[in-house]
Design brief:
CATH class of the domain at 48-134 in chain B: Alpha Beta
Largest interface: A-B, 43 and 53 residues
Order of helices and strands of chain B: HEEEEEHEHEE
Shape of chain A: rod-shaped
CATH architecture of the domain at 48-134 in chain B: 2-Layer Sandwich
Strand content of chain A: 15-25%
Oligomer: heterodimer
Strand order of the largest sheet of chain A: 4-3-2-5-6
CATH class of the domain at 61-135 in chain A: Alpha Beta
Structural class of chain A: alpha/beta
CATH topology of the domain at 61-135 in chain A: Nucleotidyltransferase, domain 5
CATH architecture of the domain at 61-135 in chain A: 2-Layer Sandwich
Chain lengths: ~140, ~140
């Protein structure tokens, strides 16, 4: 039997080095996805403020949003009390802030309310440019 | 000043032999700068918010995960609020610029979120951020 011998070079051609490198480069470029940190920021108050730091707030300067669910949001301001849909909140708060710039808006979610509903309200308040916001769970004797 | 201008002939082409070097340089840059996700987290659907903003210093964000069932997890370990406060407090000792990123499911019960927020207050982590996605 005759063997046919073919001569093959066992070296990696340096000319294809660039191709290999670019291939890897494109792979990394495509697979890299940067983990983005996005959300709504909030600065919490101190847990137990000293007594002299506690300010008295007039009832007329407080507005409450009691959140039971996405479509069960109760607005309370002075004697007014009514349910409100989420898209309504923005313009309502904006108008109220124009009338009274001392207004503090308080979000009071029910312990069983979904977290997303609170975020919806907070989002609307941000959109209405309300700066003074408080956030606290609804106590059993309230609401 | 002489009137003689010295003309040097410079080749305008980029030598193709250095193409590989450039590619490798970029490759090494991407390999080094890629940070892989270090935690698994819990399975959640983030709430949507229109006013979502980006955090500038994302390396300072410390994640607290809350799933639909109300399980709280830090570093892939389920914790109670007290343990979470301890972890956050010790982290704050080494890096005071920490922001607590609350990654909670949109349907998580609010009382769990409230407990987490109170834990953050006790730990002295006053800067929190509710992770949301931009509305479609």
């Amino acid at each position: 039997m005759l063997k046919r011998r073919t001569r093959t070079s066992d070296e990696i051609p340096t000319s294809s080095m660039a191709d290999i490198a670019f291939l890897l480069l494109v792979f990394f470029l495509v697979t890299t996805h940067f983990l983005e940190e996005k959300g709504l920021g909030l600065v919490l108050p101190e847990p137990n403020p000293p007594v002299e730091k506690i300010a008295k707030i007039r009832k007329s300067n407080m507005m409450y949003f009691i959140v039971y669910g996405r479509d069960q949001i109760m607005m309370k301001h002075q004697d007014e009390e009514r349910t409100m849909a989420i898209p309504e909140i923005r313009n309502f708060v904006r108008a109220s802030l124009q009338a009274n710039d001392q207004l503090i808006v308080s979000i009071k979610p029910d312990p069983n309310a979904p977290y997303g509903a609170m975020i919806d309200v907070l989002d609307e308040l941000r959109a209405a440019d309300a700066r003074r916001i408080t956030l606290g769970q609804l106590k059993p004797d309230e609401g | 000043m002489g009137n003689f201008k010295k003309r040097t002939k410079v080749e305008a082409a980029i030598p193709s032999s250095s193409l590989a070097d450039m590619a490798f340089l970029l490759l090494i840059f991407f390999m080094v700068s890629t940070v892989f996700k270090t935690e698994q987290g819990l399975k959640i659907t983030l709430p949507e918010a229109e006013m979502t903003v980006k955090v500038e210093k994302r390396r300072n964000v410390r994640h607290v995960w809350i799933n639909r069932a109300g399980t709280v997890s830090v570093d892939d370990v389920p914790v109670n609020t007290f343990k979470m406060a301890q972890i956050l407090n010790s982290d704050l000792q080494s890096n005071p610029a920490i922001i607590v990123g609350i990654r909670a499911d949109a349907l998580a019960p609010y009382n769990v979120v409230n407990d987490v927020l109170e834990g953050c207050q006790l730990a002295g982590a006053f800067r929190v951020q509710f992770a949301t996605t931009t509305e479609k």
